[in-house]
Specification:
two-stranded parallel ribbon, 19% strand, binds thiamine diphosphate
Length: 182
């Protein structure tokens, strides 16, 4: 997706990698992310800051489900300050990048401590006064984002995704370090 208008933000592990591969912004200051060192949880704060900086432009955040949990209460900030950003959660029910490393290095049957629940983040966000939707099929993603943007409110689109989709970057990193003893 290429954004001609608006701001994109990305937060997460494998989600960040997918974002780097698939999203593009054509103007300066319109693509915000934590970079390779990856301080998770910056997504909603970055999106809110972008909305303050560019109030007339749509702001969309793509984030992992683990990462969005770190600063989830910033939905409250969005509502109180009337900052209509659209948060799209890549909900693979895991700290995906960590789980995927375990799968590659140790085997799929040796995943431990990295799985999350099927959580209705959309409902939790609604409790803050946010527009929420659950999406469980690919065709539903775009219309849900369009409805969220049209709502004029802060929004949380909770998209259920493949829990075993490993990004190419994580595949390479895990394979490279396999057998290193670390
Ligand atoms: C503040 C912080 N804590 C922990 C980590 C380590 N870490 C890197 S990727 C990752 C998993 C992220 O999971 P999620 O946000 O669900 O995104 P996914 O990998 O599933 O796309 C973790 C915990 C980090 N980079 N930053």
């Amino acid at each position: 997706m290429v954004a001609e208008h608006g701001v994109l933000a990305v937060d997460g592990g494998d989600t960040f990698v997918w974002g780097e591969l698939a999203l593009e912004a054509r103007r300066p200051g319109r693509y915000l992310g934590h970079g390779y060192l990856g301080c998770l949880g910056t997504g909603i704060p970055f999106a809110l800051a972008a909305k303050l900086a560019y109030p007339g432009e749509p702001v969309v955040l793509l984030t992992g489900d683990g990462s969005v949990g770190l600063n989830f209460t910033e939905f409250d900030t969005a509502v109180r300050h009337n900052l209509p950003v659209t948060v799209v959660i890549n909900n693979d029910r895991a700290w995906g990048m960590c789980k995927h490393e375990q799968m590659v290095r140790l085997g799929a049957d040796r995943v431990i401590g990295t799985e999350l629940a099927f959580t209705r983040y959309d409902k939790a966000a609604e409790a803050f006064g946010v527009y929420g939707e659950l999406v469980d099929e690919e065709e539903g993603i775009r219309p849900a984002i369009e409805r969220a943007l049209a709502s004029g409110r802060p929004a949380c689109i909770n998209v259920m995704t493949d829990p075993n989709a490993i990004s190419p970057a994580q595949q390479a990193m895990a394979a490279a370090s396999a057998g290193s003893g670390h």
